Every structure is written in structure tokens, then in C-alpha cells.
User: Which sequence fits this backbone?
């Protein structure tokens, strides 16, 4: 894993140009690992993301008795499935700050049964999990909070889960529904299971990823729009044999935005028009801002087409990639408004507050609402030391402020604690340096 100093200074760059091979998708990687572990047969996973979050999942599965091997120094793994059981019935599991690991694994452990404790870093213990625990306990699970109610750490006891109907709120995190869908076949062994969504479901494209991967592992889900999902009884996970991880569409956003801001073209490889990831729709926002975007089967390319235009849009469907738009707004011709992004507050940090603080350091006028952010760019970007709050996306998106745009020049940006990018993209700053040409 790449190791960084306490801070990195990014000098102004006059142009962004080149291509980047993307790391694997975090959302796809951790889902694939758990599904492969629960499946019958051995699954060969190609191009698994190498990051803190996938390491957390791999170590947890290993402690649960799941056998996996890495092929040399490659990003290819073989996971031996357990057929819907786990060899180890009692374990203490450290989940870091990986929401894509702790939430689906909690549901799976509750459905399988045993005696497990799950915990993470301090920030993980501030990220809500109550809606998932409530849904599981109402269906017969026995999960206790060992810290603050509604948050990890958790103690999962052997329960009695044979529900026909479950309900889960959808307005805090789509990962709660993902967790129940992934554990669904384990709970619907003898009778059908319907999972109902209470209220608005946010981040719908992430549920599409989940449903797509369930299908690849042999599970059919009947859906009624976004309001309910039904699994027929007796379905079991089956290995698809070999399966490939797409390049991460959220990580693609930084490089595509760089091309849109600073000339381009910048091409990302590993994700394209056929992607199952919702964050590929980030390109629509760039196009609204005036950038030129081209898509191939396994690549996307962006270039500038004059000054970026201010944007006013709903970003509920792509909350992670929307952070990149907030920084790109520094280069726009007016005030931009990002709406329906309340989920930012329960991510790796309170991203709404953090983005407002750091954008102001660069000279922007920022209005922070309960679920929106309004950004008015300054005439001149001011040099700034950006705090990253142990949040990988804060570090990556603020690197863009070093680029020269059509309306204003980039500035010197100090990124504090750059090591946080190890969560999803350990080599990010090396990749950024390859496409950012010095002024």
C-alpha cells in the first residue's frame, strides 16, 4: 500500500491531459466478496480493488472461516464459498470505516446465526445503523448496541429469522436495503420474503448494483418499483465462476472533472457506457456544465469546451460523485446549487459541513443548508491548506483546485493527511500527477 507524508503540496497546473486506469469499484468489490463467500463453489474475482475497505472485508471473512487466496501480487482472488453458512460461529470483527462491509455483513451474520461482535474506528461508531438493526430485530434477530443506541458497535446473538415481510427506511442510506437484499436468500429458505421500503429511497443506483450482482450469483428478485422487493423461497447463491470488477465510477469523476476544467482530453479506462454503477451519470452533470464528454464500452473521456457553466441540480442519485461537482463549481461562471444531498452528513465525515469549510478557505462564498450546498466562486482562488477529515473523497476532490480553468487559475493547495485516499484509491496522487501538467 502506498504511504504518504503528513501533507502534499500541489502546485498550480496549466493543463490536464492523458489517461488513467481506474482502480476497481469499492461498491462492487465488497459486494462480490460477501456474495462469493456465501455462494456454492469457488469464485474467481478479477481486478478486486486494493484498498483499506476491501482489506477490512477480506480480514473479516478470513476470521469467519472463509478461505480465499490472492494470485501472486495481482488483484485477482479466488474465494471458496460456504454455501450460505459460515465455519466460525463466534468472532470479533473490526470493520474500520467501511460502510459497504459492516452493513451487509451485519445482516448476513444475523441471518446465519451465531455470536458476533462488530466494531470499527471512532467515525464508524458515529455512522447510523439503527434502521437496519430495527428491521432485523423486528424479524426475529437479536442484535444489541454495546455503545450508543442506533450506532455500532454491535453484538449479534443467534436469533430466529424466518420472516415473510420486512420493512426498512430508505431515506438515510441505501446500504440498509442492500444489506437486507444480500441476506434475503438466507432468510427466505422455506417461504417467500418481501422487503418493503418505508419513505423515500435515496441513492437508487446503488440498489441497481446490488440487484445486478445478485442476479449474477443466481438470485432472482421480483420488484415493485422502488417500494418493495420479493425473493422466492429456496434460492441459493451459486458462483458465476469468474467475475470482473468494473473500474470505480466515483474515482473517475476527479479525472473527468480535471479534463473539463483544464483543457483535456482526460480519459479514464475501466468503466464506460455499459457500467452498472450509477455514478457513471456524473458525466451528465459535466455536460450540463458545458464539458464535452465521449463514452466507449470501457472508457470515458472529457475535455473543456470554454468556461464551465453554473449548475443547479438534484444529486440524490450520485452523492459521492457530487462532491466533485462542488469543487468544479469553483471554475463556473456563476453560483451553483447542489440539492438533495442530506446523506453527505452520515458519510465518512459530515461532508456538507466539511465541504463548506474547505471551499471557503479557497475564497468561495458558500451557503450550507440541511440538504443542499450553494457555491459562488471567487474572482481568484486563494492558496489553502485543505483538511481532509480522514475522508478519502475530501482529499481527492480538492486536488482539482490546483488546476487552471478558463475563468480562473488554479492555486497552490496543501492536502493534509493524504493517506486517507487508501480507503479506495491508494495511488491517487500519483495518478493525478500524471495528468496535471505544471504551469
Assistant:
Amino acid at each position: 500500500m502506498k504511504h504518504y507524508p503528513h501533507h502534499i503540496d500541489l502546485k498550480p497546473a496549466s493543463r490536464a491531459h492523458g489517461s488513467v486506469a481506474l482502480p476497481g469499484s469499492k461498491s462492487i468489490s465488497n459486494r462480490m466478496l460477501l456474495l462469493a463467500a456465501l455462494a456454492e463453489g469457488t469464485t474467481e474475482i478479477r481486478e478486486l480493488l486494493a484498498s483499506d475497505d476491501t482489506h477490512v472485508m477480506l480480514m473479516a471473512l478470513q476470521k469467519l472461516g472463509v478461505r480465499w487466496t490472492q494470485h501472486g501480487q495481482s488483484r485477482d482472488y479466488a474465494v471458496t464459498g460456504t454455501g450460505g453458512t459460515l465455519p466460525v460461529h463466534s468472532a470479533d470483527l473490526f470493520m474500520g470505516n467501511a460502510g459497504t462491509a459492516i452493513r451487509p455483513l451485519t445482516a448476513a451474520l444475523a441471518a446465519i446465526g451465531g455470536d458476533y461482535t462488530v466494531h470499527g474506528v471512532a467515525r464508524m461508531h458515529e455512522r447510523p445503523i439503527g434502521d437496519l438493526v430495527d428491521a432485523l430485530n423486528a424479524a426475529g434477530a437479536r442484535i444489541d448496541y454495546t455503545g450508543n443506541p442506533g450506532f455500532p458497535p454491535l453484538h449479534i446473538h443467534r436469533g430466529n429469522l424466518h420472516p415473510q415481510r420486512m420493512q426498512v427506511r430508505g431515506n438515510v442510506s441505501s446500504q440498509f436495503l442492500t444489506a437486507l437484499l444480500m441476506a434475503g436468500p438466507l432468510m427466505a429458505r422455506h417461504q417467500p420474503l418481501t422487503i418493503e421500503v418505508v419513505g423515500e429511497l435515496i441513492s437508487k443506483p446503488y440498489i441497481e448494483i446490488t440487484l445486478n450482482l445478485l442476479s449474477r450469483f443466481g438470485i432472482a428478485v421480483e420488484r415493485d418499483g422502488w417500494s418493495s422487493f420479493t425473493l422466492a423461497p429456496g434460492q441459493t447463491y451459486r458462483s458465476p465462476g469468474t467475475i470482473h470488477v468494473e473500474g470505480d465510477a466515483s474515482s473517475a469523476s476527479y479525472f473527468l472533472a480535471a479534463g473539463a476544467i483544464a483543457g483535456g482530453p482526460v480519459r479514464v479506462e475501466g468503466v464506460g457506457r455499459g457500467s452498472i454503477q450509477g455514478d457513471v451519470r456524473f458525466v451528465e452533470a459535466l455536460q450540463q456544465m458545458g464539458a464535452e464528454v465521449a463514452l466507449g464500452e470501457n472508457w470515458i473521456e472529457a475535455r473543456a469546451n470554454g468556461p464551465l457553466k453554473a449548475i443547479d441540480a438534484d444529486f440524490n442519485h450520485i452523492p459521492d460523485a457530487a462532491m466533485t461537482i462542488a469543487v468544479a463549481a469553483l471554475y463556473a461562471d456563476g453560483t451553483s446549487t447542489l440539492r438533495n444531498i442530506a446523506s453527505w452528513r452520515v458519510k465518512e465525515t459530515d461532508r456538507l459541513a466539511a465541504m463548506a469549510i474547505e471551499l471557503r478557505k479557497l475564497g468561495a462564498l458558500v451557503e450550507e443548508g440541511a440538504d443542499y450546498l450553494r457555491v459562488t466562486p471567487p474572482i481568484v482562488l486563494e492558496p489553502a491548506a485543505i483538511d481532509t477529515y480522514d475522508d478519502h473523497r475530501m482529499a481527492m476532490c480538492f486536488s482539482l483546485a490546483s488546476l487552471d480553468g478558463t475563468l480562473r487559475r488554479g492555486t497552490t493547495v496543501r492536502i493534509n493527511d493524504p493517506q486517507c485516499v487508501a480507503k479506495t484509491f491508494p495511488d491517487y496522487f500519483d495518478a493525478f500527477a500524471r495528468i496535471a501538467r505544471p504551469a
Remarks:
- The two ends are 30 Å apart (CA to CA).
- The longest helix spans residues 99-112.
- The chain has a mean pLDDT of 97.
